[in-house]
Amino acid sequence: MNSTPCDVAIPEEEIALITYDDVTVDQNNALLCGHISTIKVGNGWTGSVNNLGVDVIIKSNNGASATIPVVLGTTCFNIPSYNGVTSTDASANFIKAYNLALNQLIYSIHASEIEDTTSSNLRSELTLLINANLQAYRAGSAFSTGPCLGSIPVTNAPYCNYN
User: Fold this and answer.
1) Residue 39 in domain
2) Which of 41, 112, 132, 143 has the maximal Cβ count within 10 Å?
3) pLDDT digits (tens, 9 = 90+) for 20-39
């Protein structure tokens, strides 16, 4: 499914990208907008997102910078459908969880809460944050890297385009 930027009713403050002088990302390839296709599987909505991730740019005190790929690739998520959760709700919840996780990751790097800023460690941290945020939005949710099993629709990551 093709998406148009921010066609899901997500308040603007929930899609704001937070960056710092020492930690930043390309804003056009960072936050998600739009809609992610899902399909009903059992008691939940399952979706797959391809090309998910971001390049984090970390600048040192001496002005040198390093670009760290934090690319999760193809991912799979499931959000329980109890209490009337729809496919649109599941998509919006995943987008919110990912966007918040990205901001949390950037802040944690800026605040020196993450000392190991290797690509593999930042991917692990981002995955943990997405899972925690999904659980906070909807208990019983799950997120994993790698493709979903079965015939789950795959959506290319619908990044917001601010140009």
Assistant:
1) yes
2) 143
3) 778 877 766 789 999 999 99
